[in-house]
Amino acid sequence: MFDNNYNFTVLERFLRYVKIETTSDEESKTFPSNPKQLELSKLLVEELKEIGMKDVEMDEYGYVMATLPSNTEKDVPVIGFIAHVDTSPAVSGKNVNPIIHKNYQGGNIVLPADNTKVIDVESNPVLKDMIGYDIVTSDGTTLLGADDKAGIAEIVDAMNYLITHPEIKHGTIRVCFTPDEEVGRGTEKFDVKKFGAKYAYTIDGGTRGEVETETFSADAVVIKFNGKNVHPGYAKGKMINSIKIAAKFLELLPKDSLSPETTEKREGYVHPTSINGNETQTTIKFIIRDFDAEKLKEYESLLKDLCNKAIGYFPGSTFDFEVIEQYRNMKYVLDQHPQVEAYAIEALERLGIKPIKSSIRGGTDGSRLCYMGLPTPNLFAGGHNFHAYTEFVAVQDMEAAVKMIVTLAQVWEEKS
User: Fold this and answer.
1) What stretches of 35-185 adopt beta strand conformation (E)?
2) Active site (annotated) includes residue 181
3) Which of 181, 204, 341, 346 is catalytic?
4) Is residue 210 a contact partner of residue 380, using CB atoms and an 8 Å limit?
């Protein structure tokens, strides 16, 4: 039973964390991609030490790890809780000014610094379940940072609860706060052996009750169209403009299928994310996604066929085609360890929270960690509208996540 007199620290921690700029940089070659992330990582080292965690350290790459030692005689598998410090580069995370809309009573939420930014009920039906809640947003000029600073705050508060309530029996718990998740590099330098957990959970999901054990499988595709540049004053019959080849290629893409804007549920897609070039060479970057990893090969073949068609309109042109594996559906691994999901569901049910089993139309650090030998599903952190000015999270949902983490630690101890 959770102590109803416990004074949660999750909100004050969250408000502190979001004010630290930690935007990751997808063009950077350094690790972490933006050294500003280390400011939050260093703060987390101090806070973990303050609450009494052991073996607290930050490595050269900015990974923060710590241990909560077991307080039971049982042989309980070491479990881990993971969240990421960085925020998406899609929207500014500089000078975040969090606003608490206390005792929400329904209706649209207009963000005060930019009244064109509105969290409307029609687009956010979850608001109908938040009457009476305290909802945290940005002021409308930045994202909020609930993805994933809510997860960080929830993990730290849960560890604080377990330390201040030693009557709650649990095995050894490891926590880790990672950099660069938002640019797909969150596990690049992650040392699974050093972390030492047998199973883990990322606290990086959305709606209260979400248990996500399936993600897209994902590859990146880089296509370079090669033309021929000649001085434009003397180019007749000689120039082959690679920008026009790329434009023809993009025109050939399916119009009503296989794109993020035309797919949902279990449908996959091919998605151009950037284009850059000149007359000589133009590069288009794609991400391709599907729950079935085998379908990625079909999408690659489709793109290659369209490349060949495009250069057919421009005799003498060529293209280069590179596929970069990103991550694979975690379900293939988690199906081999059903207790990891089952214990999370039991923890939610004990708290009276309806489990929502869902598939992620994207990936998490857990997608890669599963294939690095650490089975890691994703659990809710309570945030909504990630990567947007209209991002929000309810204080009550963050507190529910704290309870979930604590209860999950209990379930693992009891089942061992």
Assistant:
1) 54-58, 64-68, 79-84, 99-101, 109-110, 118-119, 135-137, 173-178
2) yes
3) 181
4) yes
